[in-house]
């Protein structure tokens, strides 16, 4: 029987890890009209061929609802996965102001996707567009209402600093269960100890961009010695455990108690991430290996792939905030 890996949220609910099919980044589109049949086809293939739970990471601003809707429709018609075998995360476009408020967004999107609830709903960004007639606390209060109505099973945030989270908890008395941030070993020193803050406060960190250290090697944007040393070590572990270097980096992320949110245009990579992380107990990095990956990551200068989007973290960068090992 397939062994599904879960993280436990502070409310006791279990969230499957990793998320292997993000519908943003490489699948992001400027508008919904430019339909991408490749994404629909991949989602359907995931429903059909992946064992266990398929964890989809979606958002209003990715403009990919038409593809997600078509894939879900075909899935339920063909009977590949039941609703319980799909974990669907969505995000409110707080920064871009695509929808006026979370309640309208959720009601309209559930209708579009023909779903009864989202498994997880996140505020995409701590800043709020002028197009939205509420401040961040007002947005969060709508999230609490949606949670109480059962339209979203869990609520959380994305790209929040510790200060941003404290503000919500203080003013609305309800703690997010997840903070989805850009996270990988080259970003240990972002925000004042956001990693330790979330671990200490029992908030699951979801990492987007978990593979950035490899992506930047592959596309040639990182030619540093530190970047090469890092990749060489992942390659060494990849041959030891007979998996790809990206699977090693995802396994490391999970070992650091962080839930990776990845994606790919290649089905074998989605499948590898899903199968190796979930069902291969032999892929267990040793404490020394984990510490060495951390040390090599700390050696590398901070390298944010999503610059412009998360620049608010820059004010916190300093040597003193680096993770201690
Ligand atoms: N909350 C937010 O603000 C936010 C921001 C950004 C992203 N996200 C979410 O997170 C998801 C994933 O983000 P991401 O794309 O940055 O994740 P990622 O896992 O760091 O990067 C995915 C990329 O890695 C490449 N890759 C996979 N294996 C590789 C390897 N062995 N060597 C080199 N490259 C490799 C893939 O290329 P191939 O296609 O060639 O396999 C793919 O383009 C998004 O789809 C979105 O849902 C959220």
TrEMBL record:
Enzyme active site: 62 (proton donor)
Domain of life the protein comes from: Eukaryota
Annotated keywords: Oxidoreductase
Any single Pfam family the record assigns to this protein: Aldo_ket_red
Molecular function per GO: oxidoreductase activity, acting on the CH-OH group of donors, NAD or NADP as acceptor
Statement: the UniProt record of this protein carries the keyword Chaperone: no
Domain NADP-dependent oxidoreductase: start-end pairs: 33-296
Residues noted as binding substrate in the record, renumbered to the chain: 124
Residue numbers marked as site, Lowers pKa of active site Tyr: 91
Cross-referenced Gene3D superfamilies: NADP-dependent oxidoreductase domain
Listed name of the protein: Aldo/keto reductase
């Amino acid at each position: 029987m397939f062994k599904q890996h879960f993280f436990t949220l502070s409310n006791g609910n279990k969230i499957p890890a990793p998320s292997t099919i993000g519908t943003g980044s490489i699948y992001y589109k400027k508008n919904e009209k430019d339909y991408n049949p490749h994404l629909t086809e991949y989602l359907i293939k995931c429903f059909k061929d992946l064992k266990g739970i398929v964890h989809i990471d979606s958002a209003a601003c990715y403009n990919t609802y038409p593809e997600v809707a078509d894939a879900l429709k075909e899935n339920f018609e063909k009977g590949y996965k039941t609703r319980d075998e799909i974990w669907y995360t969505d995000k409110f476009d707080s920064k871009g102001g695509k929808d006026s408020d979370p309640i309208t967004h959720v009601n309209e999107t559930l209708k579009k996707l023909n779903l009864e609830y989202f498994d997880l709903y996140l505020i995409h960004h701590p800043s709020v567009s002028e197009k939205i007639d509420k401040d961040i606390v007002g947005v969060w209060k709508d999230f609490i209402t949606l949670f109480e109505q059962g339209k979203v099973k869990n609520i959380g945030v994305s790209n929040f600093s510790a200060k941003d989270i404290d503000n919500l908890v203080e003013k609305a008395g309800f703690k997010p269960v997840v903070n989805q941030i850009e996270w990988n070993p080259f970003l240990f020193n972002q925000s004042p100890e956001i990693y330790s803050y979330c671990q200490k406060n029992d908030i699951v960190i979801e990492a987007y961009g978990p593979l950035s250290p490899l992506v930047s090697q592959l596309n040639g944007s990182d030619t540093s010695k530190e970047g090469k040393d890092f990749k060489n070590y992942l390659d060494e572990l990849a041959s030891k455990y007979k998996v790809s270097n990206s699977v090693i980096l995802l396994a490391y992320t999970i070992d650091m108690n962080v839930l990776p949110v990845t994606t790919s245009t290649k089905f074998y990579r989605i499948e590898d991430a899903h199968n190796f992380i979930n069902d291969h107990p032999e892929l267990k990095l040793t404490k020394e290996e984990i510490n060495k990956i951390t040390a090599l990551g700390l050696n590398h200068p901070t390298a944010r792939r999503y610059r412009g989007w998360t620049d608010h973290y820059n004010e916190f960068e300093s040597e003193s905030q680096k993770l201690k090992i």
